[in-house]
């Protein structure tokens, strides 16, 4: 399973590195969203600094959707999904590989966006441990849930519009918990943040487990 | 006799339409069998079903010793399918595509390079993205992807289509070499002269059924006994 996961993750990341869709489209889109928020909200009154964590995670979520869709678009071209089925690779390994590749892209995106939030929103970073654990759990949860719903939508003609409709309600708890945990970390009140971090880890565990079990059968039906 | 493919009254549905409507077919290990038939006869569905991409919904279906109705995954690493699509990732180079295909099948690391050399892809094309290749070059890469997997069962759907003369000759050599090494080949083609010359046996499909697919005819089809 782990060998198959590494093979699929390596393939997906190589495709992204060669196509440069992430660098040329997803990252600029994410930065534009941050800038649009900065224009829309009054930066002089400190509004942006207070809502920065929420805006950060909304931007990660929207940009993450692009990465998730991209992960399945590359399998739709030239019936590559049939090749993935025919490959004989373990379904759980394919899930872990695809989710791992999405998570790696999200992690890079989060680093860029964090710099953007610091520069544009004048947010001062505190509570590094809680921030890192929040990012870790939220990223794994986003990638795992997105990959599960990505394969559900993959076989449908309306997949491009259906995926956000399926995923956004499911990821609402991640958005809420990650924003609250980051707010607590930045405010220097970690005791208020740990329950949200625990919720993020529970969410990630549920979706990773579900994906490992269900992705193979879902791929067969896609 | 060891069978690579053994189907009995096998049914496969496309929606509600029975694309395979009770197929009886034996393919012995090491055979090269040509499946002949008009458009819509069920040739492509037969190959896809033997690869486990289309489900058998009734009857018996045994491929490489495994019951396909229960365990499609068990045979997939041992199968190479050349379909209408080339199954390539446009953003990956020829070498990357072949290495992924070979490694997914558990083939040794050198098999991708060997396949590239045999298909004449080891020169300047090696590091070209698949999306930049011509249709004929993509078809060669697709053939190489099958070769790189070292499959026990080759399923070839219109294998000569899109290949130039040199590519067709190479493909025929590869198929004969594979069969000589013990692999089994099931191919569907409208290029009957070329495919028939390659095949060791021809079966005919019509209306989702194979008319002469059994190696041992059933008792009912034996010579009638005339009683004086």
Describe the structure.
- The complex is a heterodimer of chains A (222) and B (228).
- Chain A is mainly alpha-helical.
- Chain A has helices at residues 2-19, 21-40, 47-76, 80-86, 91-121, 128-154, 159-187, 190-221.
- In chain A, helix 1 packs across helix 5 (91-121).
- The two termini of chain A are 21 Å apart.
- Chain A has one domain (2-221).
- Chain A is globular.
- Chain B has 228 residues and is an alpha/beta fold.
- A six-stranded mixed sheet of chain B has the order 6-7-8-3-9-10, with helices on both faces.
- In chain B, strand 9 (201-206) and strand 10 form a beta hairpin.
- The longest helix of chain B has 16 residues, at 165-180.
- Chain B is globular.
- Chain B starts with a strand and ends in an 18-residue tail after the last strand.
Tag the structure with descriptive keywords.
heterodimer; A: mainly alpha; 8 helices; 0% strand; globular; B: 228 residues; alpha/beta; four-stranded antiparallel beta sheet; 30% helix
Topology:
The complex is a heterodimer of chains A (222) and B (228).
Chain A: H1 2-19, H2 21-40, H3 47-76, H4 80-86, H5 91-121, H6 128-154, H7 159-187, H8 190-221
Helix pairs in contact in A: 1-5, 2-3, 2-5, 3-5, 3-6, 3-7, 5-6, 5-8, 6-7, 6-8, 7-8
Chain B: E1 3-14, E2 17-28, E3 32-36, H1 43-50, E4 58-63, E5 66-67, H2 73-76, E6 79-82, H3 94-104, H4 110-118, H5 135-148, E7 153-157, H6 165-180, E8 184-188, H7 192-198, E9 201-206, E10 209-210
Helix pairs in contact in B: 3-4, 3-5, 4-5
Which of globular, elongated, flat, extended, rod-shaped describes the shape of chain A?
A: globular
Number of strands of chain A: 0
CA-to-CA gap between the ends of chain B? 36 Å
| Beta-strand content of chain B | 25-35%
In terms of structural class, how would the helical and strand content of chain A be classed? mainly alpha
Distance between the termini of chain A: 21 Å
Global mean pLDDT of chain A: 87
